[in-house]
Every structure is written in C-alpha cells, then in structure tokens.
Design goal:
The structure is a homotetramer. Chain A has a 5-stranded antiparallel β-sheet with strand order 1-2-3-7-4, with helices on one face. Chain A has a 5-stranded antiparallel β-sheet with strand order 9-8-10-16-11. A two-stranded antiparallel ribbon of chain A has the order 5-6. Chain A has 8 helices and 18 strands. Chain A starts with a strand and ends with a helix. The first copy, chain A, is globular and about 65 Å long. Chain A is an alpha+beta fold and about 375 residues long. In chain A, strand 12 and strand 13 form a beta hairpin. The first copy, chain A, has a single domain, classed as Chorismate synthase AroC (Chorismate synthase, AroC fold), CATH 3.60.150. Chains in contact: A-B, A-C, A-D, B-C, B-D, C-D. Chains A and B meet through strand 1, helix 2, helix 5, strand 11 and helix 6 of A and strand 1, helix 2, helix 5, strand 11 and helix 6 of B. Strand 11 of chain A pairs antiparallel with strand 11 of chain B.
Chain lengths: ~375, ~375, ~375, ~375
C-alpha cells in the first residue's frame, strides 16, 4: 500500500532511504506564483542537519537541496516541484553488523516481517533522514503561509525532566542554544542532564510545542478531516513521536467544563476567546486563535549501553549500538514538526475556499 | 472539501445531523462473506445510546439501526453496506434559543464563519450523534477482526482526577458500572466526584484507553500511513478528544533510551518484546504485541452553570445551557474509540496483504 | 476495495442494489448555500425512471427521492447530503431462475468469481438502478453549475444505425420523442428500427452526446487529472458504455494536424477558437469553448431471444431472458451521462480555485 | 489541485518538464521482492526515445534512467522507488519565440489562463517528455504482471487512413518497421502516406490497440472503479489521446444484443466466452478473456505549415512551428499505452485480494 504521500490538495510524496543515492520529495498541487529558490528550502534543512552541536550526531552531512522541476523564472509554475538531496557519503560498512539482529526500539523486526527483508544500511527508510523530504516540502508551505500573514514556530518545550518556563518564553533564545529551547535557564539545565545521560551512554526524550499565529477562522472540517485530526496524523507520522495534544490536551481530562470552556468576547469588533484551552480549533475548524500543539518524542533508541535482543536466527544476544547517534532527537525534530504542521494548514486553507457556493460563483465571475 | 469519508480500502462515509431525519453511514470496500445482521450492529449502538444512567443525558433515544444494502442471505456481498438510524423524536423547539449565540467550547462560531450559517438544532453535524455512523461501521470492522482472532477493548482509564488502578484491571467490571471503568473501587470514587460536579452544574473529562489483542505483525506503513499516525487521526477525529498517545506516550518524553526500549526475546520460538512501551507499533508497523492507545476527552462543553459568550449581533451576554446534557462524555465515547480503532486496523490489515510480490503471485496461482 | 465513491472535493458515494430496500447516495463536499429541495432532484430522476414509453421497460417504479440530511432551511449546509429512493416493490420471485446461470453480457459470472456469490435479484449492484444515486447527485451538481451560467445537455446522437442530423439539431425535440433524440425525422426512423428489433426479441445500442456550454477556461489538470481523462472515467463507469470520445475523437485518427488544429482568433476582445475539434479541452484543461463528448452504449444484454450460456454447475444451456427489459438503454442513460459530466466539472472547477497563490492570498484578505 | 499522482495501491507520482533539469517518477506501494535493475526500465524507455527513425523527431535524447531509491540488493524493498532521467541538453534558445503566442492544438493558452504564466520551453509540463515517468513506472508494473503470467502488448492499429489487417497480425513485425504496426504490408502503405504528409509539412494521427493476455477473473469493481473506467482514464490522460474504447467499443452502438452478447461455454472445465465483444470485462470486472482496448491519437499539433493564431497581446498572427517535431505521435505512444494499461491492472489485481473475507482470514492464519 502506498504510504509515502501526504495531503489532498497540496500533496507531497517523499522517497529515499538513509544510505541510498539520495532523499527527495515531490510537491504536487502547489499553487503557481510563489517566489521560490533553493535558499528558501536550504535554511530549513540546515536546521535539521546533523553535526550542529555535541548533542546531536557527529556525522557530517551537508544535505544540499536541488530543485529539479516546477519552478520557472523564480516562481512556482503550479506543476510538481521535485527536490532532492543527494547522499554524498555512503558508509555502508559502518552498518554491516546490525543487518543480522533487531535493534530494540527500531523498525528492523517489523520491516523484516512485513517485507521479507530490509535495507539495513542506516535504518533504510525508517531513518531520520526520511524527514528531509518533509522539511523541504514544509519550507514551501511555510513560505506560502507567510504570504498570508501566518507564522509557524516550534521549539523544545521540554527535554527529559527539564521543562521550559513559559513565562520566560523567548523564541529568539531557541537559536542561541543547541536544544532549541526558548528559555536560557532551562537550556543550562538540559546541558547538565544531557552530560549525565551521555556519560551513561544513554539517550533522552522530550516534548516539542508548535504555535501557529495569524490563522484565519474556517480551516478544517466537521468530521474525519478535523483540523486537529489531520495535525495529529501529520505529527504522529514523524518517527519517534509517541503522543500528540492540542491546546490543553491531556490536562483537559482533569478539568471541568467551566474551567475548560473558553469564553467568547468582543475585541475591536471581532469575536475572540478569553482563553485558549481549545488550542485554536473548535469542532475541527480553526477559530482564529493561535493553534497550539505538542508532540511527545521518545528517547533515541540507538544507545551504546548494552541491551538484550534477538538476531535473525532467533538467538538471544546482547548488543551495544555503535555509530554516531543523536543522544536526543528533539532539537533536530523541531523543524520537522513545523513542516508537518504547515503542510496540514496549507491544505486545509485551500480546501476551505470551496466551503460556500457564493465564493465559487464569485471566483468565476471575474 | 469532502471530509466525511474515512479509510482507504475499508472506507466509510457518514452523514446526518442531530435533529435531521436520520443518521447513517455507508461502508464501502467491506469484503464479501461476513455473516451480518442488524443485531450485530445494534449491540454496539446500545453501548453509546443516551439515557443509560443518571450520568449520561436523560434523553431517550432508541437508535435502532436498519441495514439498507450490501447484505444478502445473511452475508455481506462486497458491495456498499448502507445503514441508517432514523431520528424518531425531533424536538427542534428545545434548541431555538441557542441559534442566536455561540456556545463556549462548541463549534457554533466556527460553523457560522465557515459556511455562512448553521443547522443549530442540537449541534447539527457537530453533535455527538454524528458518531452513530462510526459505531455502526466499527461494529462490522470488529466482527471482521474477531474472525481473525483480534479483539478490541476500550474502557475509561480515568474520569476527572480519578484513575483506574491497572493492577486491579477487570474488563468485566466495565459493564457493571455506569462509567465503563474496569475497577470497582474507582467506579465508586467517580460516582462521588460526579455527584459533586453535577451539583455544581459543571461537567467532567477523562481518559479512554483501548487495547488490541491478537494483532499480527506487519500492519501499517513506514511513512505517513504509520499505523499509529492513522490511529491518532481516527481517535482525534472524535469530537471532544484533545490528546492521543500510543504505548507509554507522553511518559516517554521523560524516559531514557535504556528505560524506554523494549528488549526482544524468544518465547516458544517466536520473537516477543519483554516490555511494551512502544504500544505494539515499531516504525509505524504492528509488532505483534498488544496495541495500547489512550485518548484525552475534554469535559462536556454544555453546562448549566452561567458562562460568558457573544451572540450573532456581536453582543457579550451570559448564558446557561439548558437541556439534558451528558455530565461526562467518556462512558459513551468508549465504544466510539473502539470503533475508530477497529476501522484503522481492518484497513491496515487489508493493505498489508500486498506488501510482498510473492503473496500476490501466490494468490493468483490458486 | 472501496469503489463506490467518485470525486475529490465534491465527492459522492452511492449504495444499493436493484431489489434491496433502497438505492441512495451521499454527497459530501457540496458547498453551503445552494437552494435545494426534493423537487430539484426528482425532475432528473423522472427522466430515467422506467415505464415512460413502449421503448423502455414496462416496470412501474416511482423512484421518489427523499433528502435525509445536509439541507437546512432550504439550503445546503456544507455537510453531507444523504438521499434515498426506497424500493417500493420487491419482486424477487421474478428473478429466481437467473440465480442459477450466467446471463451473457451481464456481470453474473464475474461477480460470482470475485465475491464467491452474488445478489442475483435483478442484477443486484450491477443493475441499471445503481445509477439512481448518480443522477440524484448529478442534479445538485447541475444546479450548482447553472448558478455559474454553465449548462449540461445530453441527448441521443444515434440509436442503432440511425443517426441524428446535427444540422437539424433541436434540443427541444428531445422531450417530444421517446428516444431523447434532437431530430424529429430521426426519431421516426428509430421507431421503425425499434419495432423491427423488438419483434425479433432483440435489443439496440446507440451513442449519447453531451454538450457543456458556458464553461470557463482553466478547469482540469496537466497530467493524470486531465479534464477529459476524468470525463472518460466518469462516463465509462456507467454500465453498458463501451467507448468514449472528446471533440472529434476517433475521427482525429484519420485527420492531419492542419485539419485538426483549431485556429485561435480574437472575438470581442476574447481569445476564441475557430473550430472545436478539441472538444473544449486543451492539454487537459478547459479552453472556454463548448465541451463536447460522446459515449458508445451497447445494446441491452437481456434479450428474450434464445442464447447459449452455462450454469453454475458448468453445464451448457440455452436461455431466454424473461422479464420486462429495456429494448434500448440509450434514452434512459442520457440523464446519467449529464449527471456524471456535471460531477466532473463541479469538482474540477472547485479544484481550479487554488491554482494561483494570488487567488488564495486574496481569498483570506477579505 | 495535485494531479500528478495515479493509482490507489500501486501509486505513481510523475514530475518534470521538457527543458527542466530532469523528468522523473516516484513509484509508491510497489510490493517488495521484485528483481529490478535499470536495464529493466531502460528497454521500455528506449522504445519511446526520439530519433529512432525519420518518422519521429530528429532530436537526439539518450533518456538514461537512474534508480535513486527503493531497490536493495537487486530487489524492490516495498518502499518508494524514485527514478529520474536527467535532461542532458537544454536548448531553451530554440523555443524562445513560441513564448509569445499560443500554438494551435497545444496547451499554451490554457496554461497561461490557469496559472498566470507558463514554462514555455518545449511545452513545459505539457510536453510528450512527461510520459517518461509513466513508462518507467509502467515497466515495473509490466515486470510484475509477467511474474503472474500476464502480458501487455500494444501496437499501431492504424495510422491516418491506413489500418493494419488483423488477419495478418504479427506482433513480431512491430519492431521491424518504424511505425510499430504488426502488418508488413500496412507498414509500407503508412510509409507512403507519411512521405506525402511530411512533404506537406503536415502531421498524422492514428489508433493504438492494446491486448492483455493471461488476465485472471475478478479484477475491477462494480461501480466507479470499473476496470474499463480506470483504463479509460489512464489512457485518456496521455496527451493527444482523444478517444477510448474497450472490446467492440463504438461498433456496439450499431450492433444488437444478440450480435453483441458473448455466449458462455465450457472449455476443459473452465467457463470461457465464445466471442469477446466485451473486451475482457463484464460489469467492470475482468472476465478471464483477453482485455482489448483502443485509443484514438490525434495528429501532432506542431506543424511547419502556416497556421492562424493569436499572441499574448491579443493580435491575430500567422505562425509556422519550427523545430524537430514528430510527424506522428502514434509509434512512440504505443509503449505509453502499455505502461498506463499495466499500471491500472496491477492496482486492480492487488485491490481484488481483499474482495472476500476468507482470503483475508487465510492470509493471516499462515
């Protein structure tokens, strides 16, 4: 079953595995007329590339993007935009051992069972490198959203037990520390926590939060295509994400209706909400407030500490995963959450244009 | 944009609003040969029907299902199965007042903005009654899963601050208390909590947990159609659900790799996992362990306590929502979570049959 | 595999078999604000209902449509519109014999092989009654198109060897003769031809032509979703249609480029085409000229004359199909071709609204 | 609206324009385990590459395919297969003039209207080079079909007024003449006809026929996803195709039921049809006979003879299209028809595996 396509109107199809010839994406349904060049994409890819700090993998990958189609004279043409990052260094040798056993917390076992065999080099299609295509496509979506006055910003809300203090929230801080956390003090605490865990050859999880500002009312749908449902799928489809919540999320389970309902009031002639427990979505449709979502990211499964597992011959063995792995996934996944969020929004905003017959009649009167 | 269809191979399309002529669903892509009668569906609908206890709405609705197509001589024919529950009592009068203002926590405002007007009777399409179609379709999916030895069971894991003690977990308890909670002692505590909140004309939230047993390895996909991503969308598309997690979910954010990785080992010649933090899914593909997921359900937004809001003329007003509303959504939503879970599983299991060319060649050799 | 849903944005799902409880359709993605009542639908259904003349089946079916959802205060709400025609007379007895053998030219054999058994009453899902849902949905699409100044008119271009003289083309004639042919003289010739064939207990085929006037430029897509490709699928999905052509169609195979190219020229400041061999579509996108398409319809396979076939036990037998069958399918299929054409156009026109980023930015500025 | 993706289970997404950096395709949903190398693809691309004879364009393009992902150790892995043909020579200069006017019979005008501008180099996305991706993907589908004993063969049935004599039909002849016509005598007549038209700076159309042998019973669907409907869409989505028919096609319009019905009979214990007017499909489902379809291909619109048109400033002008254009499209389009046919079949065959619940239960019992 084809599972590498996402979106209805603004549709992306990703391809590529960790140690193949390259990784790429085809963006189809992108409207014509968006100014676009490789630099627009590259700056997003640079945020997820490895080797940026001692807290991410020490592999050096340049991840340079090339646009192969769909842009002419500096603007999107409305036809498919194909983008590729060629893999420059292919060190299959590093991975030869893991071909024979199933790494705990990885997809080795399920791939073998499903497909009969697997591309074991660097995780193949289950590698974090699969997200390159998502980020490249998301960069276009984010550019398009910005033309409409909509911004999408994600950051580390927590890493391990250390949580950012949202009262000190400062987005500018994110690029000042290697954890993409918007609170300088928390960054320091994370550094200490990370030092300890890295010494133990262990790894860390965390929580990514994403805030969308400037969202118009009306995007989304009443039933299965609820905006939050699609955001959930988008974010949960990122490897290592194990939980998703919108607005107050799991906290609403303990709240009462009186506490959780957001009162409506008027502000400069516009309907606004006094609070935003709903996270910007009511009945599956954007309500004009900020959209706020969170993703729980599990700790990197590849750890150097010794673990029990089985090999393909069915023998129980002890393994210690070698190689240069991220001790935490969160900082590099922040931009992936932004990308997936933007893709859902762009799709929903375009879909919403046909919600009323009057808009359609008007469009063709011109 | 069409948003009332769910699934790829086993595809359902729901229709109907709270106070219209009826509510229904068309199930398309259901395999031929499943023994099916109305009683198979009715027993699931009965679990969500109102008026079952003092903790759910006191409205009396029979919700009797009729199968209109797709079944012949007691078996599904492989063609669309249309099912309908006709609304017997249409009390539009009860709802005339709410037409003029926006209920906090409801979709009134977003519907008006998106579509230009709304069917204000009983919430129209945003009513909980929309789930009737999901449950009816889910009943068929569950029946089909049972033919493959797979069971799907959901229950209240928590209501408000009261959590079930999973060590005392007893599924049989669920039908013994009005909260569908598998722990008799917890049920008692919920009763007390509910009494207090109902006296305050307030409402309660909670957490639903769903466990799938007997799931084969291999269902799901490596990328956007990850099994957990589709489960997330399915469950988050249920009105009032604000959070989703799989396996250890948000707890993994605080765990380390060593703690969170599930070691593989052999058991009677089969690969199994020592723990199940992954919740039965690795790399988006079922791993043969139980699938375990949780949904955070917000408190019922319709409360009798006085709240602030605005009306369609842009005036700020105080409102107190009348009518017979559920003080908690959780107990009636349990069966909806089961239904949505089953729909995703059936679809993924069918999709998985084409994962290997050998299986396809074999199929047509016969 | 689910195969009863058609369309991307304006999406319909049909259900029901000939002798089941009813036949229906769910229209999802229909924009809000279209004035709609049952009479709007009924007038289209009446054009396909049986018993209208001696040249169609003598069965009497009222085919009264009921709208069950999606319309409030006389307008579409933007949520799914469910429509049903309940079968009033269920004469399964008439069909008991055909359960045992495979009617030539029918789907009996392929259904049995695919599904293991079939609903043999009146052809089950393969019955012409399946088109009721298409026509009901198409009626909404046609109403929406008329709000945009677009008309869709189909008619019999030929029945058997008798072709309408397009120089005498008079649409008003269609309702004056039982063949829906826009040429009074041709109608007379068809009557003679039909008399002869009916006396021989044989049946007739023909060609349906459909013309769309007022179509704006821009609907359709460059690649797989070419407007003509979708029209082809839509029309070829009608039972008994064996061929499809757009514009000059098969005649272009014999033409040269010079003959076949439509020269562009200016007319009152607008680009127009001097001829319309292209049939209103260039490169898969509507060019502003009339869209002209044709469908080849095979003769009714159910004939009273004796034919050879085999039964389920694998014995060769002679059969003579009893019952009141249409001696020709064409006249009743005309409205089905209109419906399917309209559905494709509505979908393409909505999709086209997101072709340029400027339109999207403008839409949300308001 | 995204329109460059085709198929449900075996899904392809094409990208690229005539004079961009390259042309490619992503094949998603391809089963694991198919032996695949670049040579398997190249031999199909070679059949559509230009410069093969004096009757096709004299441009020299090598069209060398590279597989970028989805194949490991010589076998497909079940994950997306990305293939690309890089454009080696980019002669934009040749096309600078046509930027300013609308070529008759081309998509220049509709692209400009839809998207606001167009990539005018060599037709951009509307170029015949777009089919490279289809053929590359189709090569995989054809390989997979051959593993199941199914063959797909297309050929020129007619070019201009010259038709192949099907009694002398000899597939081996196809590669012996530049027209891909399976009749040596007809080839000679086409050569004469072509000589005449080329001297007149004019172009020719024709008819492609495709025959599928070894097709099992059961692929396809009763309603919108009828096998013939999907074949129609697939084939009509090829640029220049203006008509489609299955089996006896348009000829059935003049036939009677008695003439057109294919009698069933027994042959070595199997149900077969005495004739095959149906073209191998009954009720939208394959019946086990050969599938036979035809496509009408218009004459190349680019001709050197002088034509009338308008330019972007709205002036009426005379143009003569320069450059090295195919005097006929048919011979190079033959392999494209094979590719599109194979893609539909593979998809339908995989979908059919879930038609019966027994097959599903059996699959998971193993």
């Amino acid at each position: 079953m084809a599972g590498s396509t996402f979106g209805n109107i603004f549709k992306i199809t990703t391809w590529g595995e960790s140690h193949g010839k390259g990784i790429g994406v085809v963006v189809d349904g992108c409207p014509a007329g968006i100014p676009l060049c490789e630099e627009d994409i590259q700056k997003f890819l640079d945020r997820r590339k490895p080797g940026q700090s001692r807290y991410t993998t020490q592999r050096k990958e340049e991840d340079e993007v090339e646009i192969l189609s769909g842009v002419f004279e500096g603007k999107t043409t409305g036809t498919p935009i194909s983008m590729v990052v060629f893999n420059k260094t292919q060190r299959s040798a590093d991975y030869s051992e893991i071909a024979s056993y199933y790494r705990p917390g990885h997809a080795d076992y399920t791939y073998d069972m499903k497909y009969g065999f697997r591309d074991y080099r660097g995780g193949g299609r289950s590698s974090g490198r699969e997200t390159i295509g998502r980020v490249a496509a998301g960069a276009i979506a984010i550019k398009m959203l910005s033309m409409m006055g909509i911004s999408v910003n994600a950051y580390s809300r927590a890493i391990g037990p250390v949580e950012a203090d949202m009262d000190k929230m400062d987005l500018a801080q994110c690029s000042e520390n290697p954890f993409y956390i918007p609170d300088a003090q928390a960054a320091q605490k994370v550094a200490e926590y990370a030092k300890e865990k890295m010494a133990q050859m262990d790894s860390m999880g965390g929580i990514i939060e994403c805030v969308v500002q400037g969202m118009p009312v009306g995007a989304g749908d009443p039933c299965f295509e609820k905006l939050d449902a699609n955001l959930a799928k988008a974010v949960m489809s990122i490897g290592a994400v194990k939980g998703f919540e919108i607005g107050s999320g799991f906290a609403t389970a303990k709240a009462t209706g009186f506490e959780n309902n957001d009162a409506f009031r008027m502000e400069s002639g516009k309907v606004v909400k006094e609070t935003n427990h709903a996270g910007g979505i009511l009945g599956g449709i954007s309500d004009g407030s900020n959209i706020v979502l969170r993703a729980a990211v599990k700790p990197t499964p590849s750890i150097a500490a010794s673990q029990k597992t089985v090999n393909q011959s069915g023998e129980e063995i002890d393994v210690s995963i070698k190689g240069r792995h991220d001790p935490m996934i969160v900082p590099r996944a922040v931009v992936v959450v932004e990308a997936m969020t933007a893709l859902v929004l762009v799709d929903a905003l375009m879909a919403n244009m046909t919600a009323r017959v009057d808009s359609i009649v008007d469009f063709y009167k011109k």
